[in-house]
Structures are given as structure tokens and as C-alpha cells.
Amino acid sequence: MNALVVAEHLTRRFEGGGLFRRGQAVQAVTDLTLTVARGEAVGLVGESGSGKSTVGRLLLGLLPPSAGRVAFDGTDLAAAGPAALRQLRRRMQLVFQDPYGSLDPRRRIGDQIADALAIHGLLPPPARPARVAELLEQVGLSAEHAGRYPHAFSGGQRQRIGIARALATGPDFLVADEPVSALDVSVQAQVLALLADLRARLGLAMLFISHDLPVVRHLCDRVVVLYLGRVMEQGPVAAVFAAPRHPYTRALLSAAPSLHARHRRTRILLQGEPPSPANPPSGCVFRTRCPHALPQCAEAVPPLRRLDGDHEMACIRDDLA
After folding, report:
1. In order of start, what are the domains of the chain with their CATH numbers?
2. Torsions phi, psi of 229, nearest 5?
3. Is 212 left (phi over 0), alpha (psi -120 to 50) or beta?
4. Mind listing the pLDDT tens digit for each residue in 272-296?
5. Distant-in-sequence, close-in-space partners of 161: CB < 8 Å, separation ≥ 6
6. Which of 19, 174, 183, 286 has the fewest CB atoms found within 10 Å of its own CB?
7. What is the pLDDT of residues 34-91, one digit of tens each?
8. Which residues, in sequence order, are bridge partners of residue 313?
9. Buried-exposed string 250-288: b where 16+ CB fall within 10 A, e elsewhere
10. How far is Cα 194 from Cα 143, in angstroms, rounded to an integer?
11. By the 8 A CB rule, do 226 and 46 touch?
């Protein structure tokens, strides 16, 4: 695998407490190892609060890890100096979940797209309007939109503007953090088709964060299933979706809608709510909701083990075929 992004044993803790007292630390991500190859799309799925967005920001170097390391194109982000890190940041960008909240309502969208060019010194000022026009057309808008303000656009158009801004620096790696969850269903498919087309034409590597499993099936090459900051299962999309092995993956897939009878599964209802990341269960963090839990599941954290090919899961049971 020609890896572009490599995360090794990545852990991130957030210290709790208020202004005058210390509280419990929240373990958002624990011992996560993940790679994204050049041109590959990796889906990161899990319930709200599972640590998906934290992983995305760790991979971009927007958050420092509490332990472990992230390397981009062979360079350790934590060890890179300011100049080297600046060059690396040009090559990795983020598409936000909320397209309106990520735009300044007081500034024209052309100026906001051009900011990335100015920050990284990619083009002289006279050449920037032409590049902005090119980017707008690349995402299905027109050059004349550059002079308008964010409120003049629909939600889907604003997300296209956000994508254009992310592409301005010519990145190799894109983190798309729930990029369609704030949009109407009628426009979600259009934005997803745009991302798939851009990935194919530009050779982008992508981490696609989502709770929408059918979208991940359609858009991604591999999928990583996260629960309470730990990887439960990962592997090629075809293998994981056709034969999910971890009980948590099975529960997620059983809840996913499908128009195809062969993809429909008997619904598996998980009991209770996910535990607090400030006080996770001992052993397997999923055991308190797992319908197949054994007493020994409380004794040790199950490591990821290989099943078939690149398909892995973190579970001690062998009888869940």
C-alpha cells in the first residue's frame, strides 16, 4: 500500500474540569492505527460521540495526540518544524459539516476562497480571481457567484463553496466530516456525486466521516468502525458489508436502510446508551451493550486480529461467523 497518511497507536485525551477544579479526563481516541493510501477513500463510521471528528482533526494535525504519532507522506507532524508543517498543511484540507457556519457571512465567497491562495502564497493577487472562477466551476457553480455573499446560496451550494475552498490549495488529502448531514436529502446525493467525481479526477485521498452506512458503501474503498474511541472492525468495504463480524458492526448495518432485499438485515437493537468516555468499561468497551458478551470480555482489551485478507476485528469470540 502506498500510504499517504499513517496514524500509529493514536490516543487523544481531553482533560476535564472547570476553572477552579480538575475533572475526569475524557479518552476520545485510544490506540488507533490507521492508514490512508494515495487516492483511497476510507470511511470512518460510528455513533455520535465515538471519536470520529477527533480522529479527523488528529490526522490533519489540528489536534496534537496525547500518545502515538501521525505521519503525512513520511513526515511526522509532531516533529515537523513550522516551515515544513506549513507546506504539509497546504496538502491536507477539511470539509466542514456545517457549510454556513464555516463561511463568514460578511464577506464575498470569492474572497473567502482566495484566502487559501493568499495564506499559502500560491498565486500573485492578479491571478487569484481566475483561479477562484476555475474552482467554482469545478464544483458546479459559476464564476459570477464569486461576488455574492453566503446568505444568497442554498445549503447545497454553500457546501460546494466549502469544497471549492478546500480544493484551492491543490490538496492530496481531504477530510470530509459529515459533509452532507446538514443538507436536505434531495441535495445530499448531488454533493456526494461531486465528491466522488472530484476524488476520481484529482486523485484525492479521503477520510470520509459519516454515520450513513449506505453512503460509505457507495463512496469508500475501506471502512473503519469506531466505538468509544476504539476500532471495533475494519477492512475493505465489500468484505465488511457482506460479512460483518463484530457485533457492533452488525448492529449498525442492521439499522441502515436499503432498497435492495439482499442488503436488508434483521434489526439488532442495542440496549442502553454508550458509556461515558470519562469512565469506559474495563476490557472490551462494547461489552456493556453487546448481546454476545462473555464474562472474560471484562478482563482485557481485545486486540485487532486479522480475519481474511485485510479484514480485522477486535473481539475474542470466534463463533460469530
Report:
1. 3-16+24-91+171-313 (3.40.50.300), 99-170 (no CATH)
2. 80, 0
3. beta
4. 888 888 889 999 999 999 999 999 9
5. 99, 103, 109, 112, 113, 136, 139, 141, 145, 150, 153
6. 19
7. 999 999 999 999 998 899 999 999 999 999 999 999 999 999 999 998 888 888 999 9
8. 233, 305
9. bbbbbebeeeeeeeeeeeeebeeebbebeebeebbbbbb
10. 18
11. yes
* Short-list 57, 3, 2, CA closest to 29: 57
CA 294/CA 318 separation, integer angstroms: 12
Q: What are the cell numbers at 288?
A: 456493556
DSSP state letters, 69-134: EEEETTEETTT--HHHHHHHHHTEEEE-S-TTTTS-TTS-HHHHHHHHHHHTT-S-GGGHHHHHHH
Per DSSP bridges, beta strands 67-72 and 3-14 are: antiparallel
Q: Which three cell numbers stand for residue 209?
A: 466521516
Task: Write down the residue that cell numbers 456493556 correspond to.
Answer: 288
Q: Which three cell numbers stand for residue 239?
A: 468484505
